[in-house]
Structures
1.
Amino acid sequence: MQLATRAVVTAALAAVVAVAGYVGGLPVTVVAALLAIAFAVGWPSLASLPFRPGSAAVIGIGGVGAVLAVHAVLDQPYLRYLPVVFATTILLAFLNELLRRGGRDRLVESVAGTVTGTLLAVAVAGWVAIGRTPGGEPIVVVGALALAVGSAVVALPFAGWAGATVTTLAATGAGALAALVLPDIDLVAGVVLGAAVGVLVASLHVLFDDLRTLARHLPSIAAVVLPVTVTGILVYVVGRVLVG
């Protein structure tokens, strides 16, 4: 999958999160769970893990379990059960290795890759948590729109620091514009959130977009979903600082 295609798909997914955040409630949970499943399908191929079906199952259980755990909590802190979910999936990662056959080659790499993938999938629960926080719905929309714009700008022909700067500025501008349009969120919050999302998008672009495995479909699925899942926990942390 070409860079431009991946950028457009990531931007579209972020736009879906923005719409879900504007509607609020159950749609954010459903979208977050679907993103976790999609990421789980592609990450083992992106990370070249040796036992991909088992790793995908563990990552999917962790991601969906985290989303459901946050959705089920009735009051703050909404992430109170997230450590329990993640710790359980670490145990499942070891169980996954026990179920392997054929010598269990690259054991340490397999466990580390599965646990890392689970952590990235669990991060998507941040969208649900900030969406349920009082005053947090606009934060979801602003963060998702900044992500959509930043992801789209990645496809422009800029390299190195120029590309990172343009991506960050575009996301910051999108966050500021969204804050001006939406009620209950001030301009400073939009700028800070947009800048944070822009830095994250630019960093992920540098880390992943030169990998040869992205020529295949399954790794590309993980690559396009990854910015959306990771941004979830970033938006939650920044949002809690901004809205309390």
2.
Amino acid sequence: MPKAIRIHTHGGPEVLTFEEVDPGRPGRGEILVRHTAIGVNFIDVYHRTGLYPAANGLPITPGGEAAGVVLEVGEGVGWLKPGDRIAYVVRLGAYAEQRVIAADHVVKIPDGIGDEQAAGMMLKGMTVEYLLRRTFKVKPGDTLLYHAAAGGVGLIFGQWANHLGATVIGTAGSPQKAELARAHGFHHVIDYRSQDFVQEVARITEGRKCDVVYDSVGKDTFAGSLECLKRLGTFVSFGQSSGPIPPFDIGILAQKGSLFATRPTLFSYNVTREEVEASAAALFEVVLSGAVNIRVNQRYALTDAARAHADLEARKTTGTTILLP
């Protein structure tokens, strides 16, 4: 019987267990998939710890993105057949050798993109797509600040934002990570451990500040991020790796220059089949064109998911991490 990672109680990486799980047979509108590669993301840690509790409770199989091969097609699925290569982003269930999934959630992987590459870029790349093209429509000449520039989303973000003609400023936690970010499209990288990013943004922009700040760090960067925005600027909070942003008086947005603030999620932007297809198509286009390069920097066996989580939380990883069934 196929196996999967399961979580029966919230906690540290040690709660990830590898056990037999029957994936079942695909029903109407569903497909059975054999995974070839599985993406690892910080949201998986949130599900493991209970910060983002699953709607139906425990146990759960974590993981939101993967690539694989269609094994079986359920009734009513006319556009897929066994043997097709597919990739997807959903909320849970990817840390598995096989699974049944709704066909509407998957997209075909085009020629020229490998399974490992696809598995490592769907959630991160589609996140970058909505951040740059829909949450704030970036145009040539815009100045952006992105926190955690050497992370998986950040390395895609830097390349894509550069491709759009923006001036891209990032923060990173070491000289090595700063160098990595510069190699992936960031024009300026601030080492937040040795530099004050607010002062550095003011210096880099000659006091003009930024049109938009993208912040997945949360508690540690929120106050400084607002200081980096120009009048009518936009603050985009899409994660909280340092902890949740504490409650704040919305009046501070007026005091800082009538700022805009939003807390978007991929699963609010990509709901309909049309939205999923359009987002994936835009991602595949920039990757196939060479404008965005997706590199897998860490590979772990699916059985080593706990070690992958520990390394991710310890900030030992850069860029894209995948699990191999």
